[in-house]
Amino acid sequence: MAPSKDRQRKLARAKFDRQQARRAVSERRRRRITAGVGTGLALLLIIAGVAWAGGAFDSDDTTDTEAGDICLWTPQNAASNTDLKEVGTPPTKDLPESGTETMTIATDKGDPIVVSMDVENATCAAASFSFLAGKKFFDNTTCHAITADGAVQCGDPSGTGNGGPTYSFYDENLPDGAPEPEPSASAAPAAEVTYPKGTVAMVGNPPGSNGSQFLMFFKDFTAADPAYSIVGTVTGGLDTLEKIGKIPTVESDAGEKVTPKEKITVQTLTVGAADAAAPSASADQS
User: Fold this and answer.
1) 33 — alpha (psi -120 to 50), left (phi > 0) or beta?
2) β-bridge mates for residue 227, sequence order
3) C-alpha distances in Å from residue 244, one per residue of 31, 139, 209, 217
4) What is the distance, to the nearest Å, from the Cα of residue 102 to the centroid of all Cα atoms in its chain?
5) Which helix (H) or strand (E) is 51 found in, with range?
6) DSSP strand pairing (84-85 vs 164-165)
């Protein structure tokens, strides 16, 4: 019994550590602006730190990045990927970091799908949706895939699965993976559902490089190694989502049976704040 108890304690400790890490996500997000720009800037920061220690920057001034940058938007090359759509980039400062925002997705398949976005844990995803919605980026686009994991995939204006805006952003709110099975003859307990029905999550290509494409799960899905950053939860129109999920699929150009036989049109996607005003769209951010 001791090995089993040790295993349970280790799993409990690992889960606690992950929970603690998620609670610190807001603080980490502020530091990711440094990590995202690469080793070149990191070296400059080291040099600047040495200079600061020597008193070179003795003043009351702070840099713009330290003062307020919350999200980092990584440029994507539209010349190498013609499916990308140029609409500018969202703001980097003065973004809501708590509460929720309401996203409403009107399709041609029934009542609108209403999503409560988790601004605290998915600050940059919420800011991106708000910005792109303000640009009507999603209007009159298609949901181009119904995945084997039980999700409807939308958000690509090109409808190819390769499209999005000319920027990307990092994962913010990945769930815990399923625990490894106990080395025991007894039946293992059922794994906690990673993406419950109604979950809305980003899907990046490659994973961790998120743009505008998102998944809406119409059934529970459990992943051993979660790759989709959770944005929020469907709070209205779940029956519409389930109806869409029942549409038959055929093989895509890549040979995957994910392409809906029936066209699924996102007529409009809008974002309206529930607890605070959404950030204003800005095409010219530097």
Assistant:
1) alpha
2) none
3) 40, 18, 26, 11
4) 15
5) helix 39-53
6) parallel
Taking Cα atoms as reference points, which of 174, 170, 164 lies closest to residue 211? 164
> For residues 68 and 151, what is the distance between their CA atoms, to the nearest angstrom?
36
Handedness of CA 204, 210, 214, 216 (dihedral sign): positive
Structure tokens that stand for 92 in this block: 């980097």
Write the CA distances from 135 to 113, 129, 261, integer angstroms.
20, 10, 29
Closest by CA to 228, choosing from 167, 286, 150, 159, is: 150
Q: Is 28 in contact with 174 (CB distance < 8 Å)? A: no
How many separate helices (H) and strands (E) can be counted in the chain?
6, 15
Q: How far apart are CA 217 and CA 236, in angstroms?
A: 13
Single-letter amino acid code for the residue at 39 = T
Give per-residue pLDDT as tens, 245-283: 999 999 988 889 999 999 999 999 999 854 433 333 344
Q: How far apart are the first and last CA of the chain?
A: 59
How confident is the model over 57-75, as pLDDT tens digits? 444 433 344 457 899 999 9
Tokens of 55: 């008193």
